[in-house]
Design goal:
The chain is mostly helical and about 200 residues long. Helix content is about 85%, strand content about 0%. Helix 3 packs parallel to helix 7 and helix 3 crosses helix 8. The termini are far apart.
Amino acid sequence: MLIQVFIIGLVASFIGSIPPGTLNIMVLQMGLENKLRIALRFILAVAIIEYPYAWIAVEFEHLITSSPIVQQNFKLLAAVVMLALGILGLWSARKPSPLTVKLQESGFRKGLVLSILNPQAIPWWIGMTAYLKSQGWIVLNTGWRLHSYVLGTSIGVLLLLLLLAFMAQKLASIMKHNRVVALLPSIILLILGLIAMFSYLTT
């Protein structure tokens, strides 16, 4: 049963990390810029933060789902973070500040900061965990099962981001010195942020 919940958590996390979001776009950008070592440290930090966020989602599922205010604030926070990162990315591409350069070169610290500021994993895991429970695929009635499931979520996002980083690095040589490619992740973040903000304002 421990292995089953671990594998289910891993697969759900891997699939859930595929859609474009703040963190996987940042990994894509680092891969395209051929900064694989920085990307690997960034990915490790993301996987570490995924663990407590998934645990919070599972432990406080009922409390969070019963509060529309909490759910709306998650949407607002996600929109603000995406917009801020998109603008910062475009600005730093023109005129990098010493702080931006330092953060860009420290993948682990960057991963920690962005993961903490971008708790999109919580609403995802609330919905996914509720679905998996309703289908009878997971039973999280012991601490061992809960933490096996949550560990699977961390490993799943780790594997997906590693795959993304290595695939992007393969493309880096083809797209080297392409200005549009360097700005594309920031543009995508801006678009996603505007969509998320529009969704928040219209609900």
